[in-house]
Amino acid sequence: MATAITDQHVLRGVFEAFQAWGDFECAEPYGSGHINDTYRVRVSLAGTPAHYLLQRINHDIFKQPDGVMDNIVRVTAHLRTKLAGSADASRRTLTVIPARADGRPCVRDPAGNWWRLYLFIEQARTYDVIAHERQAFEAARAFARFQSLLADLPAPRLHETIPAFHNTLSRLDALDAAIQADAFGRKAEVAAEIAFVEARRASCGHLLERHACGDIPERITHNDTKINNVMLDDATGEGVCVIDLDTVMPGLALYDFGDMVRSATASSREDERDLSKVGSRIGMFEALARGYLEGADFLLPAEREELVFAGPLITLTIGIRFLTDYLAGDVYFRTHRPGQNLDRCRVQFQMVRSMEEQTAAMAAIVHSVRT
Ligand code: ADP
Ligand code: GN1
Ligand code: MG
């Protein structure tokens, strides 16, 4: 996608194409997501300061933004119906603001960019690295409830906004192709990382096999349950709203739990360069397992059996994606410095090692949690 737009005149024009109240004051880049361009828009609402969340959808990655928005409108409308009666329903699910011209959930600008506008959720925030086990518990329970509330979403099936998103075997194929092409001459530098993947290749298809034989069902899942994709209430600490809904689509509940383990148990930032600081914190794992199992009332025994395996699997998969992107010249994930995708990959692989060492302790925790 083209470089971020910072021209206030352009951003104002985009904002004013939506049916939003208030007088535009400014739009500033916001958050630490790797995919979309996100802005906090400040407005004056008849003299009172207020905000909106404006995003340019990354259409290099989401090839059919209409399909993404169709999913988000259906999912948020369903959640809102379920939340009817809740005092603060507009903080508990994203609210999509329609376009002025045609009422559609996004606006296309003359340059071909796709934009959307949400209500800004106030008095809550996201964290890139969490500090307390309570945060892990709340985040996991919020993601579990999200899955649970969507279990009865009426047909048709949601669009697959990125096909085979968590398919580790497809991700391995992409890595193999990037190694083969070695378009930027980076292969020699990553020999240790390639060997790390090789040593685990045999287990990469395990959940796909259990899904194919019918043990593990398809559900509606979030598919990007990174800890900074759930907002925690500033006052109560509660997991108030699940955000970043671009990848809500059919998937395995286990991948959502695995990505929580990857991101919420991490003791470091995702791109930490000092690997001695990197590891998976068992106390955070326990809090996640408790929170998730409290909210995921639908889970089958076969899914519960694989909760421990899901963490290292999804962490390996995302590490493979960072490595692939590094080899391909950093074209997918936003980077702020050279080598950042390789650092991210190394952190993921260190996290996998740390989880592997704690497999028995994690299994004992899952076994001990009553539902
Ligand atoms: P990306 O897909 O690039 O990760 P996100 O949708 O996760 O983009 O948004 C980036 C960040 O913006 C989030 O981590 C969160 O901090 C913030 N954010 C997103 N949506 C909202 C919202 N509706 N209200 C307040 N903050 C939000
Ligand atoms: C991206 O959009 P964001 O930053 O929440 C990515 C996830 C990765 C994550 C790694 C659509 O998430 O799949 O796990 O980075 N999202 C997409 O931090 O590829
Ligand atoms: Mg995000």
Give an overview in words:
With 371 residues, the protein is α+β, with helices and mostly antiparallel strands. The protein has 2 domains: 8-120, Phosphorylase Kinase, domain 1; 133-370, Alpha-Beta Complex (Aminoglycoside 3'-phosphotransferase, Chain: A, domain 2). It has 13 helices and 10 strands. It has helices spanning 8-15, 65-82, 89-92, 133-150, 168-181, 191-198, 206-212, 253-264, 282-295, 301-305, 307-327, 340-357, 359-368; strands at 23-29, 37-45, 48-57, 107-108, 114-119, 124-125, 219-221, 230-233, 239-242, 249-251. A 5-stranded antiparallel sheet has the order 1-2-3-5-4, with helices on one face. β2 (37-45) and β3 (48-57) form a beta hairpin. α8 (253-264) runs antiparallel to α9 (282-295). The relative contact order is 0.13. The mean pLDDT is 97. Adenosine-5'-diphosphate binds at residues 30-31, 33-36, 38, 53, 94, 118, 120-121, 126, 228-229, 243-244, 246.
